[in-house]
UniProtKB/TrEMBL annotation:
Originating organism: Corchorus olitorius
CDD domains in alphabetical order: lectin_legume_LecRK_Arcelin_ConA (cd06899)
Localisation per UniProt entry: Membrane
Positions contributing to ATP binding: K412
Pfam families per record: Lectin_legB, PK_Tyr_Ser-Thr
Entry's transmembrane regions: 312-336
Highest taxon listed in the record's lineage: Eukaryota
Keyword set includes Magnesium: no
Name of this chain's protein: Protein kinase domain-containing protein
Length: 572
């Protein structure tokens, strides 16, 4: 089977066939100028005789031997391949006579008639050869004819379309068909049956959506019975002309016109991008023999160009997507490498700090190192009954170190905690540098098996916040006096007068006495701080606060303040 794209020379002169003893015909097909300067002859099928014609006519391209068995031909109805030709209709097998038969061959490759995006209509040319055998020139009982048609994709012969319907239109209401067909279809008919409704004689016609020919000319099929007809049909998208011409190899009639032309806009008649083309024969009450010998088709609106554009777009999109994917992958890879290097640097820095801390600890300059096994044993494998509390960075467990015979609090930093090596090092570094009798002492540390643990001195009385914010947070006067002394600013390096500190605390507590009548005056406070008088002997028990409520009988317009006499004591 020929491929698309063979050069269609201009002009095509039918006189090239004179060596086959055909009459010369001064008819040529001029290529329309404009886009698509090439037409591809597509030999759909041919037989040996048609190849003989090709030897004298290079228009038909290089020879092919298809014998009607190619994959791009669909046989419908009675159509069958036979001896290098196509038999379109069954006529008689033995004593069996077949009437009302349909046979068609369809080009299975869809033809692009027009491009909706560019509003471009195709130019096409088709050439086929056929024989109609009416069983002799004196036989008057034959019919119905042969057609070349262009139809929508998916077209099927309607029911009851044999005979006068030529396999294309339904015969149920012939008058309706003569007016307009509901499905768009364009066909060229070689009508061999004299029908009074469609010119009352045999004819060749161009039909648009109807059995009633738009333009026609007389034709005598019985005169040419058994002779090979060569038909050329072309359409010019610029002039909108559909042209048909035919010639016979042996028989000729000077009275017959062998060409037709009709102006039709296929873009309007067939409002679709894709169509199918086919050739068919049909018989009715009378019959005749239809033989298709060869068929070629070409068009210049090659859908392969559209496919090429689509392929280019697809390849471009795939290339851009692939390039973007590669770029993103490379950037992600370098980002991960950069993050890993940065993490390694941080880990190296933290590791160096940790190594120095370990070195200092092991030199005896700080808390000692415990093994993970020792802490597991001390806390009973970190059991829940030993848990003292849960914080944001982990849990604290009570433990007992048997070798030191002391109770300890073990802080186990959880793996999911935000506190990492950096925070761990910072905590160890800060706590080891702070030394105060009121700060919990760091006894040791452990970071075996990827675990971070800190061992603190156990506080049996709880932490300071439990006394300040707990339910029973009332302190005795002794506690109030002694604890602040223990919390004296460490910047004094414990070099301060304890008596002065006690005196300051006593005066402060005296001034905050719950009973305002027992509070000192400014003079009394200064005398105590200057050690001019003895410090007051404060009750060791916290007294309940007492507040004096103003009398309801006080004069409304009195300018005197509602202050008890006890406030206006000596020194006030």
């Amino acid at each position: 089977m020929a491929a698309w794209g063979s050069v269609f020379p201009t002009p095509i002169n039918m006189s090239l066939l004179e060596d086959e003893k055909m009459p010369q015909l001064s008819l040529s097909f001029q290529m329309p100028k404009g886009k698509g300067g090439r037409l591809g002859w597509h030999p759909i099928f041919e037989n040996v005789e048609s190849r003989a014609v090709q030897q004298h006519n290079h228009v038909l391209g290089r020879p092919y031997s298809n014998n009607f068995n190619e994959a791009n031909i669909e046989y419908r109805g009675d159509a069958t391949a036979s001896a290098g030709n196509v038999e379109l209709n069954k006529i008689q097998i033995g004593d069996q006579v077949y009437l009302f038969r349909i046979g068609q061959v369809i080009h299975t490759e869809h033809i692009k008639l027009q491009d909706f995006h560019t509003k471009q209509l195709t130019n096409f040319t088709t050439h086929f050869s056929f024989i109609i055998d009416t069983s002799g020139p004196n036989n008057q009982n034959y019919g119905d004819g042969l057609v070349f048609f262009i139809a929508p994709v998916g077209f099927q012969s309607p029911a009851n379309s044999a005979g006068g319907g030529l396999g294309l239109l339904d015969n149920s209401d012939l008058s309706d068909h003569l007016s307009q067909n509901k499905d768009p279809i364009v066909f060229v008919e070689f009508d061999s049956y004299a029908d009074p409704l469609d010119p009352p004689y045999e004819h060749v016609g161009i039909n648009i959506n109807s059995l009633n020919s738009s333009v026609y000319t007389r034709w005598n099929s019985s005169f040419h019975s058994g002779d090979t007809a060569n038909v050329w049909i072309s359409y010019n998208a610029v002039t909108k002309n559909l042209t048909v011409s035919w010639t016979y190899q042996s028989t000729s009639n000077s009275q017959e016109i062998s060409t037709l032309s009709y102006h039709v806009d296929l873009m309007k008649v067939l409002p679709m991008e894709w169509v199918i083309v086919g050739i068919g024969g049909s018989t009715g009450f009378q019959y005749e023999h239809h033989i298709l010998k060869s068929w070629y088709f070409s068009s210049d609106l090659d859908y392969s160009k559209d496919m090429s554009k689509i392929k280019i777009v697809v390849v471009l999109c795939v290339s851009i997507f692939t390039s973007a994917l590669i770029f993103v992958s490379v950037m992600a890879y370098y980002y991960m490498v950069w993050r890993r290097n940065l993490q390694n640097k941080q880990n190296d820095s933290e590791g160096i700090s940790l190594i120095w801390i370990i070195h200092d600890f092991e030199k005896g300059a700080g808390p000692r190192r415990f093994s993970y096994r020792d802490l597991v044993s001390a806390t009973n494998n970190f059991s829940d009954d030993r848990k003292l509390g849960q914080g944001g960075f982990g849990a604290v467990y009570k433990g007992h170190l048997s070798d030191l015979d002391i109770d300890v609090a073990v802080k186990k930093i959880s793996r999911g905690s935000k506190q990492g090596v950096k925070e761990y090092i910072s905590e160890v570094t800060v706590i080891t540098r702070l030394k105060h009798r009121n700060l919990v002492q760091l006894i040791g540390w452990c970071h075996d098996r990827g675990q971070f643990l800190l061992v603190y001195e156990f506080m049996p009385n709880g932490s300071l916040d439990s006394h300040l914010f707990g339910q029973n947070c009332t302190l005795t006067w002794d506690t109030r006096q002694n604890k602040p002394l223990e919390a004296v600013d460490q910047r004094l390096q414990m070099e301060f007068d304890e008596e002065q500190a006690k005196c300051m605390i006593v005066v402060g507590l005296w001034c905050a006495h719950p009973d305002h009548t027992l509070r000192p005056s400014i003079k009394q406070a200064i005398q105590v701080m200057n050690f001019e008088v003895e410090k007051p002997d404060l009750n060791l028990q916290m007294l309940a606060p007492m507040y004096e409520v103003p009398s309801a009988e006080a004069p409304e317009n009195s300018a005197e303040p509602l202050i008890s006499n006890s406030v206006l004591q000596i020194g006030r």
